[in-house]
Design goal:
Layout: H1 3-13, E1 40-44, E2 49-53, E3 66-70, E4 72-74, E5 78-83, E6 88-96, H2 110-114, E7 120-126, E8 136-138, E9 144-152, E10 155-160, H3 165-175, H4 193-198, E11 206-209, H5 221-229, E12 233-239, E13 262-266, H6 268-279, E14 284-287, H7 289-298, E15 308-312, E16 327-331, H8 338-347, H9 349-361, E17 372-375
Parallel strand pairs: 1-17, 3-12, 3-14, 4-11, 14-16
Antiparallel strand pairs: 1-2, 5-6, 5-8, 6-7, 7-10, 8-9, 9-10, 12-13, 13-15, 16-17
Helix pairs in contact: 8-9
Amino acid sequence: MNESLQNSSDSIDNDLSSYDFELPEHLIAQRPAASRDAARLLVADSSHITHSSFAELYGFLRPGDLLVRNDTRVFPARIHGRRSGGGKTEFLLIYSLNTPSVPDADLIRSEILTEKNRCRWVVLARPTVHLKEDKVVTFSDQLSATVLQRLGGGRLVVEFSVPDDSALFTMLQILGEVPLPPYIKRDNNGPDEDDSTRYQTIYAKSAGAVAAPTAGLHFTPYVEQALQDNGINFAHVTLHVGPGTFRPIIADRLNDHRMDAEFYIISQQTADKINQTKERGGRIITVGTTSTRALEASALETGMVTAGQGWTRIFIKPGYRFNVIDGLITNFHLPRSSLLVMISALMGRKRVLDIYREAVATGYRFYSYGDATLLIP
């Protein structure tokens, strides 16, 4: 490619406005499909598009392929209380300070971090204007929280009135609610009973996410059995999806965007399965952008997936060279989002926008409760 054309292409790919598309509001799914695997499936490679259903996924994969899914579990991370003075306050729990290698350690006062064995969390609060340090928010007779530090951007470091995280999780089962994405509209009572089951994958295991890895919502025992019967294998990683998954890109240029940190765990068993599959010539198909981020973050240094855990802020955008994955199952994403940018890195920005125009024209349902796509470059 001519160097001037290459530079022009790079400039366009780095411009946030290049990741916009028209999306009619009625295509934003407010409820899941009647059954999980009844969701539609758009299958796309570099030149063809096929329309199918998720129940038929097995027909588009090969024997020996490995599907890697995120087994994180959404916990009832949103709680409502009142601050001293009477005003209503909402907390969205992000992470515990008991988590290894706290990602914002450079922002949090050292004395807060060094006092261990306390139930201290970073939360996203709304509103925060009156939540100064030492202010108390009461959620029930058994649970309150004291503000220790303001971090900016609506984030606070707080200490809950229970002895440890285990006790807090017990209280959240009573007081908390599943934090649905902002584009899913419910009445003032919040998520309903259907949300409590359908906004969770059937293989969810490790509690810690504030959002579901939504590509996995379509799996059923029938789909799993059909895949296994056709020689397709499974492996699991854990990436606790944070609120940054809903955060829009504010910077005009992608190079200026910084991702929120998310915690991931990759077991030795999963690392071995992935590396052995690649050695045999099988394909690694990730289920969701979160599984993709975990694997690619692990392989950044060596090109091979390694067992371990840690925080990642990896931002996959055009120009990125994938080390691990050969394809991706994902839902349809928001315009101008980091998720749309990621799949553009896999398929090419122009190709993704063509795929999305086809999806809109043929009535696919978008976002968390929407339909799915299998992308294989």
